[in-house]
From TrEMBL:
SUPFAM superfamilies: Rhodanese/Cell cycle control phosphatase (SSF52821)
Alphabetical list of Pfam families matching this protein: Rhodanese, Rhodanese_C, UPF0176_N
Organism field: Dyadobacter jejuensis
Function recorded in the entry: Catalyzes oxygen-dependent 5-hydroxyuridine (ho5U) modification at position 34 in tRNAs.
GO biological process: tRNA modification
Catalytic activity: uridine(34) in tRNA + AH2 + O2 = 5-hydroxyuridine(34) in tRNA + A + H2O
Superkingdom as given in the UniProt entry: Bacteria
Protein name as annotated: tRNA uridine(34) hydroxylase
Length: 329
């Protein structure tokens, strides 16, 4: 058993006072030694958090102790170290950027549990549609899945006509943890697709519960692991080194911050190119220092834990946390 955990989750549930909840939520993470990225919006929560098993369990108990989030489904993975170097808890307009005119609380595709999804993989009437970004499905995707050349979910309306001829099929969408599919599947229904499903819990949960069969390559994740293994049954490598073309599933963010392309680069080329994706980027004098991982901690001047909280407000939040902890006990 590995000494740390990474937990991934989302929940669509209305939050009225996002700023206050952000402060409370952030302080809890600080008090419990948790690092990660958490997004709070009027529509709900989305986060990936890392820490010890005990601290992660405390966090899950804390989230579920709130009536609004008592049904949150957490994906829990073991890891050799904490998967983040910072903590960010931010208020945004959406918990996943999409700009799609849909509300998953009113309409979304039918949820398929991992076992149900696996049972449908050989159905000739089923079409798998990957709702992730191009650099994500470049390094890993389900066999036979349709992918779009899009960089984020906001571009989905530009590509939906690529599958318009499949409206009589069973459309099954999937993504990393399930959150993108809540809105993507709703949008497909809005566009006239009749039989729309989504993999509940995404690729990560499918790998944890069903062994990841028929997922080729690795799954791109948004922490310092960069990619994770999913398929324990019939794994394969589908991506090639961006520099030399040899098979490689080492994803690297280009060391040139102005470029920041996400591309597979083998270990040898990574060192030779100093983490850059091209000779042009390699020649940039102020590029980031490559340490062999291709993961860089972003500099941020956003809200920081504790800072900006007046003592009175901080004490009030601490009191709320204590009251909620006692109610859990």
């Amino acid at each position: 058993m590995k000494p740390y955990r990474v937990i991934l989750y989302y929940c669509y549930s209305p939050i009225e006072d996002t700023e206050t909840y952000r402060d409370e939520h952030h302080l809890f993470c600080v008090q419990n030694n948790l690092l990660g990225r958490i997004i709070i919006a009027a529509e709900g929560l989305n986060g990936t958090v890392s820490g010890t098993p005990e601290d992660c369990q405390a966090y899950m108990d804390y989230v579920r102790s709130d009536e609004r989030f008592k049904h949150v489904a957490f994906k829990v993975e073991e890891h050799d170290s904490i998967a983040f170097q910072k903590l960010h808890v931010r208020v945004k307009d959406e918990i996943v950027n999409s700009d799609l005119p849909v509300d998953p609380l009113k309409q979304t595709g039918k949820h398929l549990e991992p076992a149900e999804f696996k049972a449908l993989l050989n159905d000739p009437d089923v079409v798998l549609v990957d709702m992730r970004s191009d650099y994500e499905h470049e390094v890993g995707k389900f066999k036979g899945a349709i992918t779009f050349d899009m960089h984020n979910l906001r571009e989905l309306p530009e590509h939906v006509n690529e599958i318009a001829h499949l409206k009589d099929k069973k459309i099954v969408t999937y993504c990393t943890g399930g959150i993108k599919c809540e809105k993507a599947s709703a949008y497909l229904i809005d566009q006239g697709f009749q039989d729309v499903y989504q993999l509940h819990g995404g690729i990560i949960r499918y790998g944890l519960e069903e062994g990841g069969e028929n997922f080729d390559g690795k799954c791109y994740v948004f922490d310092n692991r960069i990619t994770v293994d999913v398929n324990k049954v019939n794994p394969t490598v589908i991506s090639k080194c961006h520099i030399c073309g040899t098979p490689s599933d080492r994803m690297v963010n280009c060391a040139n911050a102005a470029c920041n392309e996400h591309v597979p680069i083998c270990e040898q080329c990574g060192w030779e190119m100093e983490g850059a994706c091209s000779e042009t980027c390699k020649a940039v004098p102020d590029k980031r220092i490559y340490d062999g991982t291709g993961y860089y901690v972003s500099k941020s001047n956003h809200y920081q834990p504790i800072q900006g909280l007046k003592s009175q407000k901080r004490n009030l939040i601490k009191m709320k946390l204590a009251q909620r902890a006692s109610s859990v006990d």
